[in-house]
């Protein structure tokens, strides 16, 4: 594996973590959502990663394989005066857990930062190698 392939591997990880952060942001924005455009409560989404080969160099990277929806039922809150209440007076809210999403956001952010640091370290090593040749 060449030093230059490090940039491809870290770049793919940065891209994947960026997508993960976007999904987390969407989940957090809909924590208290009652009904989506289809009339159903918002369902939390999670990113599934997959290892992938990066070109002809047999180095591996990462990509987002899919974004899945949680199948857990939404929170039911008794509010008979709400326009979206069912026959028993319950309103179904999204199934997003704000604490889980905050932990997910911190994890994605740290992974993103670590991959940026890997790229900066590789760049520094390449520059020092070039300086040694002078």
Automatic annotation (TrEMBL):
Subcellular location as annotated: Bacterial flagellum basal body
Entry keywords, A to Z: Bacterial flagellum, Cell projection, Cilium, Flagellum
Domain Flagellar basal body rod protein N-terminal, first and last residues per copy: 9-36
Flagellar basal-body/hook protein C-terminal domain sequence ranges: 88-132
InterPro entries hit by this protein: Flag_bb_rod_N, Flg_bb/hook_C_dom, FlgC
Main location: other
Signal peptide segment: none
Superkingdom: Bacteria
Keyword Iron-sulfur among UniProt keywords: no
Residue span of region Disordered: 60-88
Subunit structure: The basal body constitutes a major portion of the flagellar organelle and consists of four rings (L,P,S, and M) mounted on a central rod. The rod consists of about 26 subunits of FlgG in the distal portion, and FlgB, FlgC and FlgF are thought to build up the proximal portion of the rod with about 6 subunits each.
Family in the record: Belongs to the flagella basal body rod proteins family.
Protein name: Flagellar basal-body rod protein FlgC
Taxonomy of the source species: Bacteria, Pseudomonadati, Pseudomonadota, Betaproteobacteria, Burkholderiales
